[in-house]
Amino acid sequence: MIKVLIVDDHEMVRLGIASYLGIQDDIEVIGEAENGLDGRDQALAKRPDVILMDLKMPKMDGVTATKEILAAWPQAHVIILTSFIDDELVYPAMAAGAASYILKTSTAAEIADAIRKTMRGQSTIAPEVNDKLQHKDEAMADMALYDDLTNREREVLDLIAQGKSNQEIADELFITLKTVKTHVSNILAKLEVDDRTKAALYAVRHGKVSAPNNDVGE
Question: Which terminus of the chain has fewer CB atoms gathered within 10 Å of its CB, N or C?
């Protein structure tokens, strides 16, 4: 039997899930908690196989409860069961060690399936949440390309995004035209783009463009 603890501050949610899980041949609900603090205490005392954990609860939120449970008992399997897909909740929950992240819009059968998969070492992530995680990973990987640029290359990229020609960049930075061309070539390679326009779009998209210098008479 897979022993399950349900931690949620809404009684009807707990009752609904417990009612369905209670008729499963391989799942047993061994406890319910209405706040994160009680959930943490029950998890450490009863040692369930799986903990269904809400996020926003009184006394202790789900992320903190998950961290404290896993710190004391790393073998626990925590499944986040929530209505929220906000970045500020998703990433801390996954970073805290949650094995799966599903939404309360899931059917009871889907929740039971997630419990079984989690026990087999398979992570279940709600599609909406998975999309957010994927986009975040892509954005972080994209930003990592910028991090590879040298300070001088970032200056050149900034000026490219401002619409400056190679000669104008050379004049503004007091470097040779040949040096500018070398920097541009390196920038295109590091950002994995094939022309100046795409490099400029990258800079604009990531907010890496400063206000152009329109001073005259210098």
Answer: C
CA dihedral 35, 100, 18, 89 (to 10 degrees): 30
What is the spatial distance between Cα 63 and Cα 88, in angstroms, rounded to a whole number?
11
Spatial contact of 147 and 103, defined as CB atoms under 8 Å apart: no
Cα separation, 85 vs 125, in Å, equals 11
Residue 59: left (phi > 0), alpha (psi -120 to 50), or beta?
left
CA–CA separation, 108 and 21 (whole Å): 8
- Taking only the tens place, the pLDDT of each residue in 86-95 is 656 667 877 7
pTM summary value: 0.61
Q: What is the chain's length?
A: 218
Backbone φ and ψ of 102, nearest 5°: -125, 165
Q: Which domains does the chain have, with CATH numbers?
A: 2-136 (3.40.50.2300), 148-205 (1.10.10.10)
For residue 134, how many C-alpha atoms fall within 13 Å in the half-sphere facing its CB?
7
